[in-house]
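Issue: copy button drops trailing tokens. Both records pasted manually instead:
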Amino acid sequence: MSAVKVLLPKKVAIALESVIGERGKSWAQNLPAVSNAAKSNRDLKVLVDYIKVNESGYETLQAATYVGYKVDASPEEKLCLYYHEANSSERKGIKATLDILNIAVKGID
């Protein structure tokens, strides 16, 4: 049975790569020390914040560290993909909604 890669937000994935590069794969063995070091390290702060707001955040980051991960697309990226697969009336609706909300999304005319 092969292990399944976890899905991480882009910001968390970038921070994890940096931390693994600096500290190795055993970066989270002493979580209190990591939490303390997060006060002065931006990447560790991103990881600690992720752990705090996600019930299984620590386990997810451990799986990402040892098994691997995939980067989750941002909401804007997901909308852009959906937009380009949509029919013309759906595209008009998406465009009208973005215009009403005064939101610009890269890749959507």
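Record 2 (pasted manually too):
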Amino acid sequence: MSSTWVARSIYIFSRFKRLRQIVDQCDAIIIGGGGLLQGGDPRFLLSMRAISRLATARRRPLYLVAVGAEGAWSLAEAGLYRNLAKLATGVFPRDNRTLDRLGLAESVSCWRVADFALQMPAAISRGGLGVNVRHFDSEDRRTAHRQDILEFCSTVSSDTELTLFTTGNPEDGAALNHPDLAGITANRWEPNTVPELLDGLARFAAVRPSRLHSAILAIGSGCRLIEPDPGNLKLAEWLRGYADTARSIDGHIEIDQSRVLRDIEALDRALHFIRETYAAS
């Protein structure tokens, strides 16, 4: 057991009393948004275990909404997350892969929904190409990502206004400013807030995503998406829900707006389900 694992565990347990006080003040618990079913990080394992135990002990209805499974799960993590799903009154993940990993099938209390930030594409005409740069924990993955960015940017026409950008994650700044990327002729942009990111996306006609939320917010901003690094399995899996990447045109992914609308409506139905079942509890 590493010193980092121990330090994080102590911190989480020190917060358990506060978490219990919060749950005591609530009538229902919603675990919502993002890759919260995370593998390989004790913060997620211990936090989810604490929440599930409190929900059971305090008899609070529990819901999982727009969450995603990420990373490789250990046997303990897989058991905990699947038990969490069994305890929940409703489970509404943001992709089919998460459904499969939880061992669930669609039912009257379980179906796929849109990410909270996903919106119908806006009809906007503009120019410019944004390339999302990000940090990876593995040095091998960081090196491969930089090489992918270099290779992609070498194919971009000199007439195109190119911008390398991050999405507000502090760790991504070092990736954006890495010496290996210094030779790319492009603007560099590091937004610090969501409104700033959305304003900036409005400058682009197309975005090549790396982080999942760069794709989600780009779609809602009316940007066309360019196929990402094929090694980015999480992003590729999410995109398969909204586009047939095998039918992409000149590298541009054709987003099926009917699928986007389907999942947004599914999220609305999930929130209605929560209101109904919570009121009946």
